């Protein structure tokens, strides 16, 4: 039987602490070679800005192979629709049977914040107290929830290109609205950039010593980035996947193309840091940056949790699939 999990099913079950632990294990599995997550092919629709990515992964410990088809459709903003939509298909690795079909929207948001929490735990200064957000949408809310257990937060600063969005976030969370992106960056110990930017919204010249950055928001396109070249050059960059970064990260590919960095500047994966194969932060003054593109293995890890929870709790719809 194949389990169908709708958005409401996912929201009824998904929990950030569990997903954070699962994402951490998944990246460790990738570093140990018991999971695979290749770079996704990007299919661009001729005559359109729309891009479709097949984000694939397989994991021996999870017993799953999965593909999330991500539709990145910028024109949806003008229609009042989400610019990114996705669906996850998971099959059992032992016999190839279709285990589940899962709405990917909430999964993507939660596992993205979970990955930032894993990176922050490994790379941020333990005494970090000020959390900054560039961008104040749904991802900011989920990141705040994910990072509270990781950091002893005294102060939250937020800036958004839309002031009303920043003020709404501040009213619901107790954050302070900053006058500019620069003000947030200069004050932050940990910074999360959460905008669908094409041109940089954050300058490396603003980075204070000891800053940790989670660069999250830029869509998976090689010509989009949130951080300028100087920011990438100044930071010790850790990626979720080298293959994916080389394939679709404008934050990495643009400075690389300019000759500002070499490929070894982003040679470390977060899973390697988790298992101790690569170091975490080396000094209190070091600037660290987690380049978060999102990989299919993170979706697979969340899917495993959801499938198991749904069957325990009797949530979702089971259908018969052709053999």
Automatic annotation (TrEMBL):
Listed InterPro entries: NAD(P)-bd_dom_sf, ODC_Mu_crystall, ODC_N
Pfam family membership, one: OCD_Mu_crystall
Domain of life: Bacteria
PANTHER family: KETIMINE REDUCTASE MU-CRYSTALLIN (PTHR13812)
Protein name (record): Ornithine cyclodeaminase family protein
Classification of source organism: Bacteria, Bacillati, Actinomycetota, Actinomycetes, Mycobacteriales
């Amino acid at each position: 039987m194949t389990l169908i999990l709708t958005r409401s099913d996912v929201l009824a079950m998904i929990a950030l602490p569990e997903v954070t632990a699962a994402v951490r294990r998944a990246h460790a599995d990738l570093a140990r070679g018991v999971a695979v997550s290749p770079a996704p092919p990007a299919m661009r629709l001729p005559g359109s800005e729309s891009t479709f990515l097949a984000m694939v992964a397989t994991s021996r410990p999870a017993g799953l192979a999965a593909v999330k088809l991500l539709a990145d459709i910028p024109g949806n903003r003008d229609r009042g629709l989400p610019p990114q939509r996705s669906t996850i298909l998971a099959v059992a690795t032992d016999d190839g049977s279709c285990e589940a079909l899962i709405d990917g929207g909430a999964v993507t948001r939660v596992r993205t914040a979970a990955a930032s929490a894993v990176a922050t735990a490994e790379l941020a200064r333990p005494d970090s107290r000020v959390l900054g957000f560039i961008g104040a949408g749904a991802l900011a809310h989920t990141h705040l929830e994910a990072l509270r257990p990781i950091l002893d937060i005294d102060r939250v600063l937020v800036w958004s290109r839309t002031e009303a969005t920043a003020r709404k976030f501040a009213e619901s969370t107790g954050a302070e609205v900053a006058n500019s992106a620069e003000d947030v960056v200069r004050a932050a110990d940990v910074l999360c950039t959460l905008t669908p930017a094409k041109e940089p919204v954050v300058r490396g010249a603003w980075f204070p010593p000891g800053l940790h950055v989670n660069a999250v928001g830029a869509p998976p396109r090689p010509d989009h980035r949130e951080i300028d070249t100087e920011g990438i050059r100044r930071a010790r960059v850790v990626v979720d996947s080298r293959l994916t970064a080389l394939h679709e990260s404008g934050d990495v590919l643009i400075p690389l193309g300019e000759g500002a960095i070499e490929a070894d500047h982003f040679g470390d994966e977060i899973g390697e840091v988790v298992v101790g194969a690569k170091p975490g932060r080396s000094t209190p003054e070091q600037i660290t940056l987690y380049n978060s593109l999102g990989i299919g293995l993170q979706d697979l890890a969340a899917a495993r949790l959801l499938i198991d929870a749904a069957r325990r709790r009797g949530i979702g719809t089971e259908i018969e699939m052709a053999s």
